[in-house]
Design brief:
The chain has about 625 residues and is of the alpha+beta class. It has 22 helices and 20 strands.
Length: about 625
C-alpha cells in the first residue's frame, strides 16, 4: 500500500488522503507554480501509526526515505550532507482545517556540522536557522518548557536592550544556540539529536500524535468532526526568507477579505521566516509596499493569486516566501471573509463569470450567521454540505420581526425586511410589496445594497391538515405570519385557510391572538408554531402546539403539546385524541357518580349493605380503568 506521495502524484481531489494542505500543494505543483518540492505522508499512514502502537512502521519509514531520496535528486541537495545540505519543513495537514494540530517545524536537517559549514557563507542566517529549529523542535516535538527557549531569547534581548530579532548579531545567535543545546540536555537528559533522519521521524510521529491531543479532540467533538479521518504530514524543501535583505515571507488574500475590494491584501516581512509574521515580534508591511522593493515579484504574486482564484473559483488565502529575489508559494486555501465582503465577492464573481447563482447564495448565507430567523436557517440549509462556512461578525443587533445588523469594525451590514430598511432610513431602489416571494433586503453602512428573493414552500401535509380541521368542526382557521402581503396571500390560498394576517411582528401576533380569543368567547383558540417569535403566542393560546425537532427551544418550552416527528398532520390527530380522552373522562365521571348515587339511595332504603358498597366501589374503579384504556387506542389516526 502506498503511504507517501510526492507532490506530483497528488491533486486536490485526494484531499481525504493527502489532507487539505497536501492536496493544494499537489494541485499547485501540477499547475506549474513555483512550489518548493516535497512529499506528503498520508492520513492512511496516520491510521497505521495508531494501529501500530503509536510508532511508524518500517514499511512507512522505507517509503518516507525513498521519497526523500527522490527529493534529493530533484533538488540536487543531500539530506544530512555538510557541504550541500537539504533542509526541510514539516507541517501537519488534516482534510479539515482545525486548531490544536502541531505547529510547523522549519530548518529540519540542521545539526552542528551543517550549521558551522553554512556559517562560513552566511553566519547570521546559519545560526538564526539553527536557533529556530532547536527552539521549535524542543517546544513542539519534545514538549519542553517554552521558558527554556523562546522565553530565554526574550530575556536575552531585554538584557541587551534589543528591540527585535534583527538586532541580534551572528555572535549573539551563536551564543543562543549553545545555550539552547545546554537547556535541552539539562532538561531532557540527552543531547540535541544530530542525525537528520531521527529528527525527521520524531517530528512526523509528533504530528500524528498531535491528532489526539486534548485541544484537537475537544474541537472535533464540538464541531462534529470524525476522529477517524486522521492527519497527513507535508515534508517540503526549505526556502529561506531570512537569507538576506532580498529575502522575506508574507501572507495575502487575492481580494480584500473585509471589504471585498478586488485588490491584493496582506502583509510581508523582509529577512524573516514564516513564524515571524504571526508572532508579533516585528511589524509587517502592507503588501502594496512590496512594489517599492520589487515590482516584478509583486506582479508575479498578483498573477498567481488570480490564477488560483480562477482555478478554485473563490478568494484565496496564500503564504509565500522570497529567497534572494526568487518567489515561492507555500500554501493556498479558501480565504475566510466578512459577510459584507461575501456580498461583494458574490456580485463581482457573478459579473466575472466565476460563480453561478448557487454560489451566490452560498456566499451570501454567512451574512445571517447570528440570526435565528427561519429565513436565516433557510439560507444556511441551502449551503449545507458545501465549501462555504458561516462567518462571525464582531457583534450584532437583532431587531425582532425586522432583521439583523452585524458590525465589522467601523462597518455595518444589515439584512432583513423592508421595515428594517425604513428603520435604517435606507432607500430601497425597488418596491416588492406585490411579490409572491419573501424579499430579504441588505444594506451596507445604512445604504441599500441589494436583495435576495426567497420562495416559501408549504410544509407537507399542511393543506391536508387545514381540511381535516374543518371536517372536525373547527370554525375558523387563521394564518399569522411575518411574510409580506403577496407571499402570505398566495400561501393562504393554497392552504385554504379562512383568514390571514401578514407582516406581523411578534407583538402583533400576540395582539391578533387576543383579538381572536375575544371574538371566540364560547370556544378555544389553538395555535401551532415552531419559531422563537411564536413562543409568546404559544403561551397565551388556550392550547399551544409546537414542532419538537425543528422548533426552537423557546417554542417547545412554551407549548402545551409538542409533535416530536414534526408532522403537521398530527395537529388534527391531537384534537381527535383530546376529544376522545375528554369523552372518556366524562363517561367515567358520569358512570362513577351514577353508581355512587344508586348505592347511596339503596343503602338509605335498607336494600343494600356495606359489602354491596365495597363491591360497587371496586367495580366502578375497574370499569373506569378499562374504559380509560380506550384512550390509548389510536388506530386509524
Amino acid at each position: 500500500m502506498q503511504y507517501v506521495y510526492s507532490f506530483k502524484e497528488g491533486n486536490r481531489d485526494k484531499k481525504n488522503l493527502l489532507g487539505g494542505k497536501g492536496a493544494n500543494l499537489a494541485e499547485m505543483s501540477n499547475l506549474g507554480l513555483p512550489i518548493p518540492d516535497g512529499f506528503t505522508v498520508t492520513t492512511d499512514a496516520c491510521h497505521e501509526y495508531y494501529k501500530n502502537g503509536k510508532t511508524i512502521s518500517s514499511d512507512i519509514q522505507f517509503q518516507i526515505l525513498s521519497k526523500l531520496k527522490t527529493l534529493e535528486i530533484n533538488t540536487g541537495k543531500v539530506f544530512g550532507d555538510v557541504r550541500n545540505p537539504l533542509l526541510v519543513s514539516v507541517r501537519s495537514g488534516a482534510p479539515i482545517s482545525m486548531p490544536g494540530m502541531m505547529d510547523s517545524i522549519m530548518n529540519l536537517g540542521m545539526n552542528d556540522e551543517v550549521c558551522e559549514e553554512m556559517a562560513k557563507g552566511n553566519a547570521r542566517m546559519a545560526y538564526d536557522s539553527y536557533r529556530r529549529f532547536i527552539e521549535f523542535y524542543s517546544e513542539v516535538v519534545m514538549n519542553y518548557p517554552t521558558e527554556l527557549f523562546a522565553g530565554y531569547l526574550e530575556e536575552y534581548k531585554n538584557q541587551k536592550g534589543y528591540k527585535s530579532d534583527l538586532d541580534l548579531s551572528s555572535e549573539d545567535l551563536r551564543g543562543i544556540v549553545i545555550k539552547y543545546k545546554d537547556n535541552y540536555l539539562e532538561h531532557g537528559g540527552s543531547y540535541f539529536p544530530q542525525d537528520p533522519k531521527i529528527q525527521l521521524m520524531n517530528t512526523i510521529s509528533a504530528v500524528f500524535a498531535s491528532w489526539n491531543n486534548d485541544r484537537a479532540i475537544k474541537y472535533r467533538k464540538l464541531e462534529g468532526i470524525s476522529d477517524a479521518i486522521g492527519t497527513a504530514v507535508n515534508v517540503q524543501e526549505m526556502v529561506y526568507g531570512n537569507m538576506n535583505d532580498m529575502s522575506g515571507t508574507g501572507v495575502l488574500f487575492s481580494r480584500n477579505p473585509s471589504t471585498g475590494e478586488d485588490k491584493l491584501t496582506g502583509e510581508f516581512l523582509m529577512n524573516a521566516q514564516g513564524e515571524d509574521i504571526v508572532s508579533g515580534i516585528r511589524t509587517p508591511s502592507e503588501i502594496e509596499k512590496l512594489k517599492d522593493l520589487s515590482e516584478d515579484i509583486y506582479n508575479q504574486l498578483y498573477h498567481i493569486a488570480k490564477k488560483m482564484e480562477n482555478h478554485y473559483r473563490d478568494v484565496q488565502d496564500m503564504e509565500f516566501t522570497i529567497e534572494n529575489g526568487k518567489l515561492f508559494i507555500l500554501q493556498t486555501r479558501i480565504g475566510k471573509r466578512t459577510p459584507e465582503a461575501n456580498v461583494r465577492f458574490a456580485l463581482d464573481f457573478l459579473k466575472e463569470g466565476l460563480i453561478d447563482e448557487k454560489e451566490l447564495i452560498g456566499l451570501s448565507a454567512s451574512a445571517e450567521a447570528y440570526s435565528n430567523h427561519p429565513i436565516a436557517f433557510a439560507l444556511k440549509r441551502a449551503v449545507c454540505g458545501t465549501k462555504y462556512e458561516e462567518l462571525r461578525p464582531d457583534s450584532c443587533t437583532e431587531y425582532p420581526g425586522e432583521g439583523i445588523t452585524a458590525f465589522f469594525g467601523n462597518e455595518t451590514f444589515s439584512v432583513g425586511n423592508k421595515k428594517l430598511m425604513e428603520r435604517l432610513q435606507a432607500e430601497v431602489q425597488n418596491d416588492f410589496h406585490e411579490s409572491y416571494e419573501t424579499i430579504l433586503y441588505t444594506a451596507k453602512n445604512g445604504k441599500f445594497a441589494g436583495y435576495i428573493s426567497i420562495s416559501d414552500t408549504i410544509k407537507e401535509g399542511a393543506a391536508e391538515t387545514v381540511s381535516a380541521l374543518k371536517k372536525l368542526g373547527i370554525s375558523r382557521t387563521v394564518m399569522l405570519t411575518g411574510d409580506a402581503e403577496g407571499a402570505a396571500a398566495k400561501i393562504a390560498e393554497k392552504l385554504g385557510v379562512d383568514e390571514y394576517k401578514a407582516g406581523l411582528f411578534p407583538a402583533d401576533k400576540v395582539s391578533e391572538l387576543e383579538r381572536l380569543k375575544e371574538s371566540e368567547q364560547n370556544g378555544s383558540v389553538i395555535f401551532a408554531g415552531d419559531g422563537i417569535n411564536d413562543a409568546p403566542v404559544l403561551t397565551r393560546a388556550d392550547a399551544g402546539i409546537a414542532m419538537g425537532a425543528l422548533g426552537s427551544d423557546a417554542a417547545v418550552e412554551a407549548a402545551d403539546v409538542v409533535l416530536m416527528n414534526d408532522d403537521i398532520r398530527h395537529v388534527a390527530d391531537s384534537i381527535i385524541i383530546a376529544r376522545r380522552t375528554m369523552r372518556i373522562v366524562w363517561e367515567n365521571i358520569v358512570f362513577a357518580l351514577g353508581v355512587k348515587a344508586a348505592v347511596l339511595t339503596l343503602g338509605a332504603l335498607g336494600v343494600t349493605g356495606m359489602w354491596a358498597a365495597v363491591f360497587a366501589d371496586v367495580g366502578v374503579a375497574l370499569i373506569a380503568v378499562l374504559n380509560a384504556m380506550r384512550a390509548i387506542r389510536v388506530r386509524g389516526i
